[in-house]
Amino acid sequence: xxxxxxxxxxxxxxxxxxxxxxxxxxxxxxxxxxxxxxxxxxxxxxxxxxxxxxxxxxxxxxxxxxxxxxxxxxxxxxxxxxxxxxxxxxxxxxxxxxxxxxxxxxxxxxxxxxxxxxxxxxxxxxxxxxxxxxxxxxxxxxxxxxxxxxxxxxxxxxxxxxxxxxxxxxxxxxxxxxxxxxxxxxxxxxxxxxxxxxxxxxxxxxxxxxxxxxxxxxxxxxxxxxxxxxxxxxxxxxxxxxxxxxxxxxxxxxxxxxxxxxxxxxxxxxxxxxxxxxxxxxxxxxxxxxxxxxxxxxxxx
Length: 301
Hints:
Strand order of the largest sheet: 1-2
Number of strands: 2
Helix content: over 70%
């Protein structure tokens, strides 16, 4: 294979890993939006919170206990996931549930405030510095690379994170399609007033949806830490904005749509980083997303 083709193929492999994170976080948006037709803008901060808690817990355990490294890593990731899900549920229960039927802007402002509070808490707790997962904690099975083709490789941690993110998103889509709760969620998404008249507890549907979405956001954060070694407090805003665009462009309520949109965004972003000035990557990404939103058919969000 030519060097040019190998380079392009490697960038595509890199994009897959990033796309998996976008798809999983966008799934959280789809689930909550289906429950209340409102956006919870705190999910990016929840992902960063979970990633930071996972890293901090792993470092604390690494310094204090003599467990096998793989067990310390697993415990840290589990603690981070639980902390993220609890934070998301607290936002849903105390910031969103009381105003879930209020105008959309009220919910967006409330959750944006919650996101800022989480990010500031992380900034203060970490001393405004990045904290990194100790490399010694990574199991041997997740070190090294997989050779996809001649000159094209993907790290084992990256492959695991990508497959885990897509697997979780796929399980969520299947659960919302096949389960009894999923039927209640779809009924609520299509016509909440009629669902209430037929006996559906819409508040309970929202709270369960918020918990599920919170776990999805938290898992996004810990998988990012597993792949890249850390997730800073300010990373939440950027991935939050991109995942929100993915959810809207993919079609709210369509898990297949967010998969396509998430992968397309990751390919464009990685392609720009590879072939154009990196400094302008986010400028180009958000300009394209705004243009696509302006050109897409008008639907209620």
